Amino acid sequence: MSAKRMSLWTVLCVAMVMGVGCRRQAEPTAQDEKELAGRRVAVLLTEGFQDQEALHPMDYLGERGAAVTVIGPTIETVKAYNSDVQITIEQTVADVSVGDFDALVIPGGQSPARLRENETVVDFVREFVQSGKPVAAICHGPQVLVTAGVMDGKRATCYAGMSEELVEAGSDYEDTELVRDGNLITSRLPQDLPVFSHAIAQALLEKAGGV
Q1: What's the structural domain count of the chain?
Q2: pLDDT digits (tens, 9 = 90+) for 191-202
Q3: In the annotation, is 139 catalytic?
Q4: DSSP assignments along the chain, one per residue
Q5: Tens digits of residue pLDDT in 42-81
Q6: Residue 98 lies in a domain
Q7: Of 22, 140, 158, 198, which one is the catalytic site residue?
Q8: Is 6 contained in some domain?
Q9: What pTM did the predictor assign?
Q10: Is 56 known to be catalytic?
């Protein structure tokens, strides 16, 4: 993973001062650190991502042994909309396949609105959902899922401001910190990140028969 970024907990604790909340996870045990060894996770983003919603899953899963790759429309260094955090997109969506990864994570912010305009990205996300592998989206991340046409009849949550869009897409919207429906994992806001990241890890273990 190649990323120019501030400390994750610096970001989270700045958020606490702003009233968002800061809940640090318990330190993983030596046994737990590598429980996801061999799992490959794609984090899909572009310019305008939300810093915590990208960094927390990347760090949480990476610390537990997962290989995390940042993918996007083009290889470039992109900036968060809410801070100076920068992340480098390592591979383009056009150059990867669903078979390269075991899970897909879509952070929120302004990034999803840009991603949903890219047909190649939307096709990739649709195929990933249809594969049955875990797909996790937080905040505005479900916008890409809506455009991909995979939310009809699904239970999901998101940033409250886009809840009507989920409903119009045929989803059963729930205002709760985490919703899992089949291989779809959704959360609302940065304060939901601890349960969001944990749910991704659990889904990876379940998919591989690890639990």
Answers
A1: 1
A2: 999 999 999 999
A3: yes
A4: --EE---HHHHHHHHHHTTS---PPPPPPHHHHTTTTT-EEEEE--TTB-HHHHHHHHHHHHHTT-EEEEEESSSSEEE-SSSS-EEE--EEGGG--GGG-SEEEE--BSHHHHHTT-HHHHHHHHHHHHHTS-EEEETTTHHHHHHHT--TT-EE---GGGHHHHHHTT-EE--SS-EEETTEEEE-SGGGHHHHHHHHHHHHHHHTT--
A5: 999 999 999 999 999 999 999 999 999 999 999 999 999 9
A6: yes
A7: 140
A8: no
A9: 0.85
A10: no
